[in-house]
Amino acid sequence: MMNTINEMWTSHRTQISFTIMTAILLFVGFNQSWVLALGIFNLSVISSIMALGVNIQWGYAGLFNVGIMGFAALGGLSVVLISQQPVTDAIEAGGFNMLIALMLGVITVVVGVVLHNKKFNKWVVFASIFLGFFAMRYFFADASSAIEKVNPAGTGYLGGLGLPVLLSWVVGGFAAAGVAWGVGKITLGLRSDYLAIATLGISEIIIYVIKNEDWLSRGVKNVTGLPRPVPYELELQKTPWFQDWAHYFDVGLGEFSTLFVKLCYAGIFVSILIGLIIMANLALDSPWGRKVRAIRDNEVSAAAMGKNITRQHLQIFVIGSAIVGLAGAMLVTYNGLLNPTSYQPLRFTFLIWVMVIVGGSGNNLGSVIGAFIIWFLWIQAGPMGLWIAEVISNFAGEQSSIALFIEDRVHHLRLVFMGAIMLMVMRFTPGGILPEKNKEL
Amino acid sequence: MVSESVDILNAFALLTNFIIVPAIAYGSQLALGALAVTLIYSIFRLSNFAQGDSMAFGTVMVILILALFQSDWANANFGAILPPYEFLSFVPTALYALPFAIGFTAIYLLVMDRLVYQHYRRIKAKAINMCMASMGVMFVTGGLVRIINGPERMTFDDGARFLFSVRDFKEFTGLTQGIAIKTSQFLTVTVAILLVAFLFYFLNKTKTGKSMRAYSDNEDLALLSGIDPAKVARTTWLIVAAFTAIAGTLYGLDKGFLPFQYHQLLLPIFASVIVGGIGSPMGAIVGAFVVSFSELLLTYAYKKFLIFLLPGYVPDSLVQLIGVEYKYAISFVILVVVLLIRPTGIFKGKVV
Predict the structure, then answer these.
(1) pTM of the model
(2) CA A324, CA A48: separation in Å to the nearest integer?
(3) Which site among A301, B93, B169, B258 is 20 to 30 Å from B162 CA-CA?
(4) B139 vs A141: CB contact, 8 Å cut-off?
(5) Do A196 and B47 touch (CB under 8 A)?
(6) Per CATH, the architecture of A40-86+159-428 is what?
(7) ipTM of model over 0.90
(8) Strand (E) positions, A201-255?
(9) Which residues of chain B lie closer than 8 angstroms to A415, CB-CB?
(10) Which phi and psi angles does B320 have, rounded to 5°?
(11) Contact, A191 vs B305, CB < 8 A?
(12) What are the tens digits of pLDDT across the range A163-172?
């Protein structure tokens, strides 16, 4: 009996694990609520896309990215900068100076690089950068305070370009790709963990910029009411055909409109995910994929075959980060707000890593199932922790110090729990749930 | 004429008080953390991402033991914990708790080594896999710290707050600007100097230290000459535990304990290690001071300094190069510049 189960599992891992996950989500839908089940589903799909990007970096090339949070935040910032309506008063107040400041910044960098390449004395290079920096600061300080003074409670920032929100997702991908290119260019080719350290740094800096540059992103005041690619609930409730549908399915109008919107999002997200998976799998089976895996499994012999390893790593790092940026943009659109304080390394770096490792590094479908499982556990761990606290307080008394202590701290247990899962999977089943299939070349 | 030279003295007193003294203290704290990272790197070839959170763990142990010291139970059984000599009364109680905390940190690190890292050494895994495992340890440790002590900011500083205060200095010199030295800053520098002296003595003069260096330089040759790798690993973790717990406690005495801030210390610590040259103890110390001085020099608002130095001139801004909120960005920029110009660091570390 045990043997047959084992055999079935090893030969049909993918089918079995996805069936079980579907069953669990259906169970949540029937027993708790469909809104909750769809919410978990949508966030799982977004996490899957992020995990897919990381899997491309780690599973295909062994690149360790500790800055997933930063790339996701860049995607989120792009949504604001591309799709929000521009704030014309603010642009009149400080837009011109800000433009000058940004151009001065670009000129400073370009001049510095050119002087350095032309082998000028390093003090000349240093002085030019220093001067450029001060010139930039001068215009920048005026512009940012002027912009932030325009209706600080309502706007206080420049707004965006007012372009369609779906375009901003693409831009988010490109923005993350650009930063990844810069980081990769500096650190790839050096020791492998320098990339990890540099991504850790750049992600924190991106978050600091979004938190502190109010003229750009409103900082911790959050940008709310971002445009959507799907209809609004209130408008849906007013249309007659929608009312007929709600009547036909015998669901309350409010709940049905929420479900409908979430379903629309699910449709968009799933089609993007499927498209990406198909492309990623095709790439992995192509000559390109063989080259990539050859480099990962034996750098020295791949180099001997004349493959440019650093360039290949840079390419993969950029592609993976672009996918993470895209997912970050999707997440912000789905939430309808950009909230810089929500970017915690725990949520956006660590959890994604656990998804990749648990799902199976190197296997694209693995990161999807990993994302579903880990996100589900993460969401359900909250109620579970409260349940533990309740059991203990039943034993020790409602107001006893131990019960209060545990109720206060129990949610940090999730951190230890997730870390332990990741370490255990890495130690005992390094392949994860769905191990990479074509290990041999 | 007299007033002008006094103004210059005032200006430099100002700089000493707000840049030099804090930078030396912060640099010493960073140096201890960076030494731990560089030691772990040279023995295990592991870039330890868990360093910041391990420092938080050591500090939490100190806080726990302090709470035990000051509990009714301890007072009833052992009496209040008092300093052995009158002149030591300025020392914060945390220092008496430190030896116990080092012990607990050592146990924790050794257990983590046994449960996590040993496996990767045995299968001779790639360095990056071990690096990833250390990220797992980082989050587990962070979780434990928050479970034990909560995520909020707290201070555990007692004893005399200042070695000498701004007022003492003003009365003594007659300047309008004062220099204050906090007890925690004085202790930080003293303890750091003692520890570093001990480390260099240990690595260069004792047999165990020499075997550690041999193991780091060439593992195969070291094994051939009969050096016990398990002993090397154990000793390394013990020294690392001491440095980690002390660095964390000194930082906490100086700036207060906040788990997330400890987590963020990882970036300046790595920057220090890489600037100095990874694997080189001397480099870690120099790197730490490069990072701490750049951070304070670049984020200080020079307005008052310029008013003293250039009489009659009042700048209309704060004359601050970079906002304090971007202090960690400075570590990053230093890191990038070093990787671009001289990836081996100042003291030629290992870059393979």
Answers:
(1) 0.89
(2) 10
(3) B258
(4) no
(5) yes
(6) Orthogonal Bundle (1.10)
(7) no
(8) 223-224
(9) 139-140, 142-143, 146
(10) -115, 130
(11) no
(12) 888 999 999 9
